[in-house]
Amino acid sequence: MTSNLGSEEIRAAAPKLHKLIAVTEDRHKQYLKGIGQFTKQLYPVLKASFKRDEFLGRINQTVIFLPFNNQEIGQIVQIELKKWKQRAEEQHAIRLSWSPKGKLLVQGYDVNYGARSVMNEVQTLAVQLLAEAQIRGDIQDNWSVCLFINDAGNIDIAKEDPLEDVITSLEP
Q1: Domain Clp ATPase C-terminal, which positions (predicted)?
Q2: Within 10 A of 130 (CB to CB), how many other CB atoms are there?
Q3: For position 103, what pLDDT does the model report?
Q4: Which own/partner contact pairs does 36-42 have at CB distance under 8 Å and 24+ positions apart?
Q5: Do residues 97 and 145 make contact, with C-beta atoms less than 8 angstroms apart?
Q6: CB distance 157 to 144 below 8 Å
């Protein structure tokens, strides 16, 4: 059985729990003790929902999923961008890169929806922008494209037509 019971309490305690993880990374027993104490704090929430002790007695294990921290969200953004980079190369021979300032994509994180919200943000902001540019003819197959954050703080694309490089190299 899965449930979102206690999600508000977990969200509120997330910074402390992340700190606990960092401090006890190499001390498993201390980590388990800290998580065990926190899990006991969730008992009243479970009791209020299930009402009867015989239902609570059937819960063998409580697993706590912490909200992502900024570093983890950044890793998800990188994984998603790499996935779309591979697709662009395989399907359109477009070489995709991005500036390290992909922080705008991190802002799409919604603690209620987890990694899915970041994945959707990458697709909505970055991939949609590329698709629209390709439909308009602004970029074409075999081009190099770089995603970057413009002065207005929005995601934009810089493109490089390989023919322009060849023509430029032929000029005296």
Answers
A1: 70-143
A2: 21
A3: 59
A4: 38/13, 38/64, 39/64, 41/9, 41/13, 42/5, 42/6, 42/9, 42/10
A5: yes
A6: no
Enumerate residues 6+ apart whose C-beta is below 8 A from 126.
Answer: 81, 84, 98, 105, 147, 155
Contact 42, 62 (CB under 8 A): yes
> Shortest CA distance to 38 belongs to which of 58, 59, 12, 57?
12
Any idea what the CATH number is for the domain that residue 118 is in? 1.10.8.60
Domain range for residue 19? 7-56
Q: State the chain's mean pLDDT as an integer.
A: 80
Q: In the chain, how many domains are there?
A: 2
**Does 92 share its domain with 31?**
no
CA 131 to chain CA mean position, Å: 21
Q: Which residues of the chain are modeled with pLDDT < 50?
A: 166-167, 169
* Predicted pLDDT of residue 40: 86
Could you tell me if residue 74 is inside a domain?
yes
Reading the block at residue 172, the tokens are: 């005296």
Give the pLDDT confidence of 123-145 residue by residue, as tens digits: 888 888 888 988 998 888 888 88
Q: Are residues 91 and 143 in the same domain?
A: yes
Model's pTM, two decimal places? Answer: 0.69
Residue 100 CB contacts under 8 Å (≥ 6 apart), including other chains: none
Q: ∠ CA(14), CA(71), CA(129), 5° rounding? A: 120
